[in-house]
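Cross-check.
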Amino acid sequence: MNGPHHLDLLLQLLPEAVLVITALAVLLLDVRAFREEPVAVRMTRAAWGSMLGILAALITLRLEIANGDAPAATFLLQGPTQFLKGLILLLCLATVVFAIPGRFTRHVGEFFALLLLATTGLLLLAGTENLLMLFVSLELVGLSLYVLTAFHDQRPESTEAALKYFLIGGVAAALTLFGMSLLYGLTGSLQLAVIGTRLASTPASPLVWPALVLTVAGLGFKIAVAPFHLWTPDAYQGAPTPAAALIATGSKVVGFLLLVRVVHVGFGSATAGAAGELPWRPGWLPVLAILAALSMLVGNLTALRQHDLRRLLAYSAVAQAGYGMLGVLDPSPESRAAVLYCAVTYALAVLGAFGVLALLESAGIEPTLDGISGLVHRSPTLTGCLAVFVLSLAGIPPLAGFFGKFLVFLHAVDRGTALGRLWLVAVALGTSAIAFYYYLMILKRSLGTPDAGTPAALPVSPLHRAVLVMLAAGVLTLGLAPSLLLEPLGAAEDPGLSPQPGIGSPP
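Predicted model, tokenized:
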């Protein structure tokens, strides 16, 4: 029997290793060499160092390596893993760019180091089906994001938001760990594919249902699905805008990927129940259906009352989680690809929106409906990009947000029945109409006449302008040509759903 291929393992984890080394280097240089420099200089240098590390990680992600021996499916080589890892790195790269003009903290090196460590955890989460590695990576992401939320020196509510995020996150982590321990006790395996096979081939145990509820509750916290969303508005409002952008984008994409894997691979058909049955039928389908409906209702109705744009985006994220959960109900490969498409395109749009808010805050403009009044007279470029992002979130064609919702709704209608998922589609369509109001209110304020006088032009650096335009172009392009994203997501089947090689995969 061959020994472990440690070199293969190291090469497979090379992007993560590059990010960790970059985080340590940025922290060390800021503490030792640049501590006496002005915050603006330190922020720029740390951001460029972080961007170089992320670009190096993107390059190493393309390296192909041979399979090696390791705990079964601890690290995945193919499927949507590599593609989504690249997307996560690009999202983090844009987040770092938007952090450059920020003056929200004196602890610059610590901020960027934690940002890179959170991204490392997201990469590990995207590339594992092993429960132990999954939980360790969740904790790495969670602890990094808890601290990042508290980094805003000028915002008193930042500490309160971080504390609430930490307390609720700690409870969610405990629930997840307990649910995973039940799964391990029932099946004797840490690998999701093996767990699904053994649950389906053995008599149902009463402990399967607590394991299901606890695990889904923990992952529901990660994607901010109601009723596990209470941390979201405070974290989005209190955290520095770049940190909030990472919470809203990378964490959301990986959260949906994990939910699909755990539900379809780990629990599989053993606990699904019939797809078209009444919502009180036992199984994970009714559980997710109820969570989806609750998220769409709570998110959209509460967003109507928001004046602060960060809180509005937070409740919008809750509603978007409900739309994504609607797609998770269908185990078909097309629906899984639609869920990931919806999550990725949402991440692009909301990242662009947070990027606009970050630039407004750096110019001393409050990110509120009143603050963006007459924005078109100060910066037509920012207003145009913001319009693209907001209209995509609202689901207006031909933008990517429309096509994502259309695909999810289409699969639900195609496989639902009168007593099954059609009621969920009706809820989704009704709440989407409600969402038009608060999204269009943003456009009305930004395109309207300023409240007083003629505002001065808002300067936007070429780098930030280029990133925002590329994000807006990406949202438009993926709406006009969705196959550019659907094909790699559909062709790259999840290893647990369609067997393929991974480090340590059984022969």
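The radius of gyration is 22 Å. Residues 66-71, 271-282, 491-507 have pLDDT under 50 and may be disordered. Passed to J.P. for a second look.
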